[in-house]
Amino acid sequence: MKGSSIHRSNQRVWTVVCAVAAVVLGPAAVTASALDQANAAPLHHAVKADQSQAYLPTDPTRRRTTATA
User: pLDDT-derived band of residue 20, with 50, 70 and 90 as boundaries?
Assistant: First the structure.
């Protein structure tokens, strides 16, 4: 009987170790896989914004005030 309780105890320890490893390593493997897929994707060229439009302030005589502490 004594040997079987030690066996069950060892089995529980290994179960906990495997569960912890799955929780820690699982997300890391998913992240690595996603990064590999992103690196393998073709390069995306961003569309340049039209530079003909400019921001016009509503009151050109008004200046920005700086916050003073």
Answer: very high
